[in-house]
Design brief:
By secondary structure, the protein is mainly alpha-helical. It is 71% helix and 9% strand. Strands 1-2 form a two-stranded antiparallel ribbon. It has a two-stranded antiparallel ribbon with strand order 3-4. Helix 4 runs antiparallel to helix 5.
Length: 192
């Protein structure tokens, strides 16, 4: 390829040194040859385009991947912004109070902080009530499951004690766990 470029540059340099009339005659004489070279170059370009068909598909995939990467970049930036924003009102209040050490707060800011703290306290109380209600319901279900059973004059846990079938309608106790069992003791924060 470089050899052809060098030859063309040498020919152009020779022709530039020629007088104008001689140069025009030489270029006119080269016209049929140039047309042949142009046709050959066009044919090679068409063949190259035919061979580059698969690269067009690759370029399309590359463009799609670049779009996807741009979308991921936007999502990462959005997530970064989201993590910079405190998720909890108490965090907002704490941030503002610490920043208040740098300068005195205005009366509006003080009222806003008090409002945020009261709302955070209200949310905390509601969360505690919900958790307590959930705990009490679960405790009631577990206590009902581990109800006491009288056997041989003693009280046993009906769930934790182990029975074994000895016939189609009979069973016998093989392990006795006294009531209240360790499960119920754990619910009441008692050590076994």
């Amino acid at each position: 390829m470089n050899r052809h470029i060098d030859e063309v540059e040498a020919i152009n340099a020779k022709r530039a040194a020629m007088p104008r009339e001689d140069r025009v005659k030489a270029e006119a004489a080269d016209a049929p040859l140039l047309r042949i070279q142009l046709a050959y170059a066009l044919e090679r370009a068409e063949q190259a385009e035919a061979r580059t068909g698969p690269t067009d598909a690759l370029e399309q995939k590359l463009a799609a991947m670049e779009k996807l990467a741009a979308a991921w970049q936007k999502e990462a930036e959005r997530a970064r912004k989201d993590t910079a924003v405190p998720a909890d009102l108490a965090d907002v209040a704490e941030f503002r109070i610490w920043s208040a050490l740098e300068r005195p707060l205005t009366e509006e800011e003080v009222h806003e902080h008090i409002k945020i703290l009261r709302y955070a306290r209200l949310l905390s109380v509601e969360a505690i009530e919900i958790a307590h209600g959930t705990y009490m319901a679960a405790k009631k279900r577990v206590t009902a499951l581990h109800e006491p059973v009288q056997h041989m004059g003693k009280t046993w846990c009906g769930e934790c004690s182990v029975r074994r079938r000895t016939g189609p309608k009979t069973e016998e106790w093989v392990a006795f766990i006294p009531h209240p069992c360790p499960t119920l003791d754990a619910l009441e924060n008692k050590e076994a």
